[in-house]
Amino acid sequence: MWQCPKCGRKFKNTSQDHYCGEPVNTVDAYIAAQPEQVQPLLDQVRGTLRAALPEAEERISWSMPTYWRRHNIIHFAAFKRHIGLYPGAKAIENFSDRLTEYKTSKGAVQLLYSKPLPLPLLAEIAKWCYETEKHR
C-alpha cells in the first residue's frame, strides 16, 4: 500500500494518480483547480462540447466534467501530460480511423497538451454519442 503524503489516502499502486483536495461540484471549479497553463485547453474542450451538446446538462460525475441528458454522454479530465476524453468504447470503435494519431484505450482518448486539440472531431464524437446513446 502507498499513502499519499499530501492527503493521506491509501492506494495499491505507488504514486497513484488522484485528486487530493475537496471534491469539486462544478465544471468551473474543476477547471480552476487545474494548472494555469492547462485551463485554456480545458476551456476549449468545454466550449466545444457545450456547443455540440446544447441540450445536455453540464455536471461533475466520476470526479470529472460530464455532459448528461438522460444518461452520461461524454466526460473529460485533466492529467499531467494530456486531457482524457471519455466517449465510451463504441465511440472509440466508430471513430478509430480518425483517432490513429492519438493513444486510445477501450473507452478513452488521450489528447496530449503538446498537440493541437482536434476540436471539430471532439464535437463530432460528442454529437454521435448523444444521438446514438452509445456511451453506456
3D structure, described in words:
The protein is of the alpha+beta class and 136 residues long. The protein has 4 helices and 8 strands; from the N terminus they run ββααββββαββα. The chain has helices at 27-32, 39-52, 89-94, 119-132, and strands at 2-3, 10-11, 57-61, 64-68, 72-78, 82-86, 103-104, 109-112. The strands form 2 sheets. Strands 3-4-5-6-8-7 form a 6-stranded antiparallel sheet. A two-stranded antiparallel sheet has the order 1-2. A hairpin with a 4-residue loop joins strand 7 (103-104) and strand 8 (109-112). Helix 2 (39-52) packs across helix 4. The radius of gyration is 15 Å and the shape is globular. The chain starts with a strand and ends with a helix. The mean pLDDT is 92.
Q: What's the arrangement of secondary structure elements?
A:
Elements: E1 2-3, E2 10-11, H1 27-32, H2 39-52, E3 57-61, E4 64-68, E5 72-78, E6 82-86, H3 89-94, E7 103-104, E8 109-112, H4 119-132
Antiparallel strand pairs: 1-2, 3-4, 4-5, 5-6, 6-8, 7-8
Helix pairs in contact: 2-4
